[in-house]
Structures are given as structure tokens and as C-alpha cells.
């Protein structure tokens, strides 16, 4: 019998790569990549395709949702808002702890695209590498959000469809994700996490700092090159 | 004090026009139109702008999500699937009663865009003219779907945001919607509902049949021109 199809949301970063490695244990993979106007898109798409080649993924969908850039509100898509450095942990203040790199409600867009595609290609699972603890306080990276979204899928798709979002990393720390990736031989050297984007990762942005901290605490060298 | 802002999802059809008329009673309006690759887009956008002009709406956002067309699966976006005629009511069979004009999970995409925009422009309400009874069985037109989506908004946006989806037509019949539109002086003559799309409405597609039935049962003439 053919394996069931699972869609994996693959940004090209480490978390999505480890998520793909987990999904590959039980499913035939279909990869979805969403360009939402982020600064480092070209580099992320390159990482997506390299990871897809590694897993010999045939069904690939690359979707562009430029409207998130038009709507604005985030340092990741709006060049007038600077990307913060040295800001790996949310500030504890009375202000909102949401960093300026938060793209408003972004993951709802990604999931909606994944669900529409799942209905058409008859995939039963949608894997997303969201991480609750290390997510810098992004509200749409929390388990409650995904539980609520599963209810939206139940109520908003054809009655015969059974599509479920799976978040295998949601309660893992970054070092645990690194260890899981190493254990499953995920191609971490092909991934890209940096928010700035050039030939090498900057090593200073929020995303690089979280990644480097994860490798350090896991006691594993990060296989990608960094500036300086 | 300034009026609170409400985003209204305006397709250009009758239901969204009446929804705008309801929202206009209490809110400053912002109009959102989403092009998802449907066949009649140019005509719908024209209707959107005419209705927006009527209500003197300054904040307008027109967003294109061509990926629903790329994903396919619906007669509305895929030219290889014919638009059914004389199919105003779901067939009662053991098969799925979902018609071929269903665009998989479409309303989740529309709502996600509306919520992202609401976070940026500080709108508190999102009005959508979904109708449960007359919706031909589209699963994402039912109240349970919107209730579930409100929970996704609660969990997936910044803690200080208070955004809520409002569905004032959800339990109305088409004739009740027509009567409500007439009562509120909604510009029904500016609307467009036909799934085919040419100079005049076809009068035969599912959407035209529902609309014509609504006007007939309300005892009000439909102010738009039809073919033949």
C-alpha cells in the first residue's frame, strides 16, 4: 500500500528541516514553501530546494504571498523597520513582548495554503516546525494556536476530509531540536536561518543567536558558515 | 471620539454589499477585496470599487492570491472544471454535497488577510457576508467555522489585539438579505454575483439562481441586467 502523503512547511531553516526528517519516517513528503516578501527569500528558497532534493521530494509547491509585505507591520517584510540585534529573548516589560520581527498572523496564512493544497492532493497531515518556547513570543507559534486551527480545519473543509496539523517540535528546546536533527541525519548543513541574508549568516540577528545557542548547548558544531 | 474601524470583506456581490451597509451603521469602514484567480475577477473588482465609492471608503486593500488558482480544485478558479448550471441546491446523495464551485478552504485565506491587515490598521471588527443556509453547502460558510476562527485569532495575534469576525447575515435567507439591503439603502444595483461573467449576468449559474430566487421571494425587482 502506498504511504500516506504529508505536507511539510519548509522555510529552509533548521526547525523545518528537522520537522521534515521526522515526517520522512512515516510519510511520503510533499514540500510547501511560502515567500511572504521576507528579506532573505532567495537564500531561503535555495535552502528549501536543497532540502527537498536531499529527501527526493517530487511534490513541491512554492507560493508567493506578497500581500503580507504590502500590509507591512514587521521588520522581516518592511525595510523601514530595522531588524533588531542581540534580542534573542523577549524583553520583560509592561509593553507587548512581541518583537518587531513578528509578521502579523503569518502562520495562519501558511496553514491556510497548506490546507487548501492538502484538500486537492489528498494529504492527511500538515507538519510545521513551530517551537513554542524558543519562538521569541510570536503568538502564532504556540500550541493553543495550532489546536484552534485544527478546529477551523474540521469545520471549514469538506466533511470527508481528515486533515490535521502536526507540530512535532512544539515543546522542544533549540538544543533538543539540534540533537533530534543529528539523530535523524537531517541535512542541517543545507539550512538557512539568518534574518539578514548574504553569502554567510550574520551571526548577530535574533534568529542566528537562537540557532547558535542551540548548537552550543547541544554540544554540536553548527555546520553552516558565519561572517567574521 | 473617532469611530472604530471595521474591515469589511467586499467581493462585489450582494451579500457583501448588504454586510457593508450593516457595518456602516456603527463603524468607519475599511474595504478588503481578494482576487483568488476567479473567472469574473475584473467585473467583481469594478463592483467593489463602485460600492466603496458609494460609501466613501478611503482605506481600500485589494489583494491577489493567485496561489488558489495554482492549487486548483474548483470550477471557479480552474477552467478545466465546468461551472454547473441549475445546481442551486446541494444534491442529496451519499456523495459529498459540496459543489464543484467550492474553492478549498477559501474563506480561511480571506480571513487571514483581513486579520493581518486589522492588526496593522488597528481595526477591531472584520465583517464578512457569509450565509449558512443559502451557501450551497460550502463548509467554510458555516457559523461553527467562524466561531473556530475567532479562537484562532485570539490565540494567534498579539495579546493586546481584540479582533473579532462578525457575520451579520449568517442565519438570514436570501430574501431576508434583499429586504435588509433595501431597508438600509444598500446600493444593490452596483453589485455583481454571476459566476460566468460578461456584460450582463447569465441568470443561469448557481449564484445567479440563488440571487434571482432571493429577489423573487422578497418581492423586489433585481436592479441589475440579465442576459436574454
Overview of the structural elements:
2 copies of one chain form a homodimer. Helix content of chain A is 36%, strand content 11%. Chain A has 7 helices and 5 strands. Chain A starts with a strand and ends in a 10-residue tail after the last helix. Residues 86-96 of chain A have low confidence and may be disordered. Chain A has a single domain (5-218), classed as Rossmann fold (3-Layer(aba) Sandwich), CATH 3.40.50.620. Chain A has a 5-stranded parallel beta sheet, with helices on both faces. By secondary structure, the first copy, chain A, is of the alpha/beta class. Chains A and B meet through β3, α3, α4 and α5 of A and β3, α3, α4 and α5 of B.
Q: Which SSEs are present, and which pair or pack?
A:
Two copies of one chain form a homodimer.
Chain A (H helix, E strand, L loop, with lengths): L4 E5 L4 H11 L3 E8 L5 H14 L4 E6 L2 H5 L34 H16 L3 E3 L15 H14 L7 E3 L7 H10 L22 H13 L10
Parallel strand pairs in A: 1-2, 1-4, 2-3, 4-5
CATH domain class of chain A: Alpha Beta
Strand content of chain A: 5-15%
Query: What's the number of extended β-strand segments of chain A?
Result: 5
Mean pLDDT of chain A: 86
User: What share of the residues of chain A lie within helices?
Assistant: 25-40%
**First-residue to last-residue Cα separation of chain A:** 51 Å
Q: Tell the overall outline of chain A.
A: globular
List SSEs of chain A in N-to-C order.
EHEHEHHEHEHH
Instruction: Please indicate the count of domains of chain A.
Output: 1
**Which class best fits the helix and strand makeup of chain A?**
alpha/beta
Which blocks of ≥5 consecutive residues of chain A have pLDDT under 50? 86-96
Amino acid at each position: 500500500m502506498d504511504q500516506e502523503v504529508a505536507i511539510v512547511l519548509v522555510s529552509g531553516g533548521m526547525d523545518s528541516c528537522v520537522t521534515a526528517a521526522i515526517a520522512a519516517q512515516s510519510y511520503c513528503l510533499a514540500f510547501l514553501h511560502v515567500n511572504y516578501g521576507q528579506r532573505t527569500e532567495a537564500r531561503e528558497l535555495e535552502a528549501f530546494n536543497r532540502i527537498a532534493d536531499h529527501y527526493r521530494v517530487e511534490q513541491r509547491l512554492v507560493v508567493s504571498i506578497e500581500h503580507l509585505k504590502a500590509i507591512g507591520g514587521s521588520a522581516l517584510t518592511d525595510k523601514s523597520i530595522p531588524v533588531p540585534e542581540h534580542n534573542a529573548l523577549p524583553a520583560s516589560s509592561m509593553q507587548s513582548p512581541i518583537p518587531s520581527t513578528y509578521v502579523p498572523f503569518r502562520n495562519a496564512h501558511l496553514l491556510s495554503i497548506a490546507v487548501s493544497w492538502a484538500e486537492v492532493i489528498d494529504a492527511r497531515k500538515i507538519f510545521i516546525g513551530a517551537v513554542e518556547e524558543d519562538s521569541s513570543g510570536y503568538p502564532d507559534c504556540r500550541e493553543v494556536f495550532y489546536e484552534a486551527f485544527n478546529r477551523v480545519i474540521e469545520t471549514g473543509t469538506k466533511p470527508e476530509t481528515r486533515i490535521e496539523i502536526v507540530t512535532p517540535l512544539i515543546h522542544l528546546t533549540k538544543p533538543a531540536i539540534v540533537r533530534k536533527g543529528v539523530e535523524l541525519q537531517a541535512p542541517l548543513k543545507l539550512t538557512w536561518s539568518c534574518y539578514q541574508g548574504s553569502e554567510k549568516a550574520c551571526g548577530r540577528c535574533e534568529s542566528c543567536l537562537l540557532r547558535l545557542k542551540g548548537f552550543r548547548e547541544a554540544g554540536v558544531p553548527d555546520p553552516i558558515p558565519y561572517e567574521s
